[in-house]
Write a structure and sequence with these properties.
elongated; Papain-like_cys_pep_sf; six-stranded antiparallel beta sheet; signal; alpha+beta; single chain; 720 residues; hydrolase activity; seven-stranded antiparallel beta sheet; M23ase_b-sheet_dom; 12 helices
Length: 720
């Protein structure tokens, strides 16, 4: 209840923001309309007081979810490891006990043979080199007929030749038997202890599962509320940016400036009378000018640039659509393309835009510039139209619309269309053949790095689990914690979690930072190191030492700050460490924690991510046309609490909670014949479902570790 009260107070503290200033339009470009700010329903809380406050409200909920998931994942990992150790110890104990039993039988046999020989020697009067004590020892197990050897002379010869050797063999067998018995006892004790440890950890997992289910159930309603508030926030942010833009246009009007054509502003050394170069860090900015009026310097953008920004604002709020070019939906390139028409027509791929337009230094970015995001290993994956204040207008898949958003960390270059073709060739980075899709501000739903290919960044027993990913707080510049902390002693070895290429950095916040590029848009970061044991450009392997724990940079004590980044965006590291693969999400939500308002119904209470739902309904219609029956479904979106419950019941079959694609609303379990390999229904699905974006994953195929004919996942969406 206390958690719920804190959330209520947090939302109650959010206040209303903005009145948008209207200004006259320029004749050479459309006037962007003012986005409407939804009124507050009667009896509900007002929209947020600021962008920062609202973001933290939603992020705090996500942080709580991430912390619960990380805690449960860690407990499950410990239990799984203990269970494997217990199974290994039990197998070793049974093997040792079997070996000891066999050895005991062999020892008894050897003593039995010696006893027969000694008794015969005694009765036959054969001299012996063995003393009375050893003779009595060997006589103990005798229970044989002493007339076994009928021929006295043969017996004498035989016993004389082998008596000492048999005695030594019997002693050796006895010693070996005692050693193996002791080994078996030790291993049985270890097996019992390992079993007890696994049982105790199993109880902890059950307890944490119950706590996780309760916590997530409590969060669901709060997430729905926060999601609605976040939507209001986006509207407010869009309006703020538009108000700022209109203020600039008002300044131009007050300065009595008519925006000149782009061609006039290309060369800062040849500007028309009355215009002066605009400088940034001592350098003149091409394609832009300035005027000074009443002691105030006003930036002068070209008419074409102002028109492009105006048109970009006119698209704000339009729904996102993969590769869509309007008028109802826009893909990431589609929005930028429409903004700059008719002045120029952008190519149909982001990678093809980069070679065609002059790049400018990031310090000189101006409104209207095309911002392309990506990396050398990832390629170019996103494009936006620049605004001031580190913002841009872009079609954002994660937000489902054209929005005003922050320029991401993976900004690759800024292009200025009004400067024409580049003076020197600009070659776009090409993604590796295995590069994962990162579309328009969103990462792929799941990212497989190969089961078992990851190791933990610190050796077992040397660390604790510290501040989790996503925790909100003013001590972090982003407003939330972008990694997972592992408190450990200074000097504790730090290891690469998997193979990649090293880059060493020394940012103020991290002190010593090792960044490893694993290709395909995947990076890991290791911060606050006391020393670095690798060099720039070095290739490292999983488990290789790269440095040592320290307290450099912005820290409150020695620890490793560990990050996983996909396409430049930080994601929760714990699922990667737990499974060697991870579901990375969409829309900023945690796995299994997607508000109902963000999902779409398909049938009988089942829900999916909306693009997956649309594709599913088309698939279901085709299935009905072929078989005359409704597509049978047993499972679709699965909440985190439901994942935990399933994992409790079927740990060998269910995915680790927080990693299932059911938790992203892009997986279904089907029935009605599809749940049997080689049935007509299954064969039809194999042949037809991919055309609708639905595929049967390789891990669920016959002969794999988990044969699940019923499980289907939504893959690449249609480009229409």
């Amino acid at each position: 209840m206390e958690l719920g009260r804190r959330r209520g107070l947090r939302f109650a503290a959010l206040g209303l923001l903005l009145a948008v200033v209207a200004v006259p339009a320029y004749a050479d470009g459309p006037t962007p309309s003012t986005p409407s700010i939804p009124s507050t329903p009667s009896g509900s809380e007002p929209p947020p007081a600021s962008v920062t406050d609202v973001n933290r409200s939603l992020e705090q909920l996500q942080a709580e979810a991430a912390a619960v998931q990380a805690d449960f994942a860690k407990a499950t990992i410990a239990y799984t490891k203990a269970l494997k150790e217990a199974q290994t110890a039990e197998a070793a104990a049974k093997k040792a006990e079997t070996t000891a039993s066999t050895s005991k039988s062999r020892s008894d046999g050897e003593r039995h043979k010696l006893g027969v020989m000694t008794a015969q020697a005694y009765q036959l009067g054969i001299p012996t080199v063995m003393g009375t004590e050893s003779m009595l020892w060997s006589l103990a197990p005798v229970a044989e007929n002493l007339q076994e050897i009928a021929d006295r002379q043969t017996a004498i010869t035989r016993l004389g030749a082998t008596q000492v050797a048999q005695y030594n063999a019997a002693l050796a067998a006895e010693s070996d038997s005692n050693r193996l018995k002791s080994d078996a006892t030790t291993k049985r004790t270890a097996a019992n202890e390992a079993a007890a440890k696994a049982q105790e950890l199993s109880k902890q997992v059950q307890q944490k599962a119950a706590a996780a289910s309760a916590a997530m159930a409590d969060q669901t309603a709060a997430l729905d509320t926060a999601s609605g508030v976040s939507q209001q926030l986006q509207t407010v942010r869009d309006a703020q940016a538009l108000a700022s833009w209109k203020t600039y246009l008002t300044e131009l009007t007050a300065a009595k400036v008519t925006p000149p054509a782009a061609a006039v502003l290309r060369n800062p050394a040849r500007l028309p009378a009355g215009l002066a170069p605009l400088t940034r860090r001592g350098a003149a900015v091409p394609g832009v000018a300035s005027v000074t009026t009443a002691g105030r310097t006003v930036r002068v953008l070209s008419a074409e640039t102002i028109r492009a920004v105006n048109q970009a604002f006119n698209l704000v709020g339009k729904p996102y659509g993969v590769a869509a070019t309007g008028p109802d939906k826009y893909g990431c390139l589609g929005a930028a393309r429409v903004a700059w028409e008719p002045y120029t027509t952008l190519p149909n791929l982001v990678g093809k835009v980069y070679p065609d337009y002059q790049a400018v230094p990031t310090a000189q970015i101006q409104p209207g510039d095309l911002l392309v995001m990506g990396s050398k290993s990832l390629g170019l994956v996103h494009i936006g139209v620049a605004l001031d204040n580190g913002e841009m207008i872009a079609a954002d898949e994660s937000k489902g619309a054209v929005v005003v958003t922050t320029v991401p960390d993976n900004l690759y270059a800024a292009l200025r269309p009004t400067l024409g073709a580049p003076a020197k060739p600009q070659v776009a980075p090409v993604a590796t053949s295995d590069a994962y899709p990162f579309r328009c501000g969103n990462t792929a739903t799941s990212y497989d790095v190969g089961s078992g290919s990851w190791t933990w960044p610190l050796p077992d027993g040397t660390y604790e689990i510290g501040t989790p990913f996503g925790q909100a707080g003013s001590e972090w510049s982003s407003g939330f914690h972008t990694g997972q902390d592992f408190p450990a002693a200074i000097g504790t070895p730090v290891r690469a979690v998997t193979s990649g290429v090293v880059r060493i950095e020394h940012p103020a916040w991290a002190g010593n930072l090792v960044r490893i590029d694993h290709g395909n848009g995947l990076e890991t970061l290791y911060a606050h190191l006391s020393r670095v044991d690798v060099t720039d450009g070095q290739q490292v392997t999983a488990g290789q030492q790269i440095g040592a724990v320290g307290d450099k940079g912005n820290t409150t004590g020695p620890h490793l700050h560990f990050e996983v980044r996909l396409g430049g965006d930080p994601v929760n590291p714990m699922p990667f460490l737990a499974t060697g693969s991870a579901s990375t999400g969409w829309g900023g939500y945690s796995n299994g924690m997607i508000p109902a308002s963000k999902l779409c119904a398909i049938t009988s209470g089942h829900m999916l991510r909306c693009d997956a739902a649309a594709a599913y309904l088309k698939l279901a219609a085709a299935y009905r046309a072929r078989f005359g029956t409704t597509l049978c479904i047993t499972d679709s979106y699965r909440s985190y609490a439901a994942q935990v419950s399933l994992y409790q019941r079927k740990p060998s079959l269910a995915a680790l909670p927080g990693t299932s694609n059911h938790g992203w609303g892009v997986a279904v379990d089907l029935c009605g014949g599809i749940d049997k390999y080689n049935s007509p229904q299954y064969q039809w699905m194999k042949a037809q479902a991919p055309a609708y974006g639905w595929v049967h994953p390789a891990w669920a195929e016959p002969g794999r570790n988990r044969e699940e004919p019923w499980h289907w996942e939504f893959g690449q969406p249609s480009a229409t």
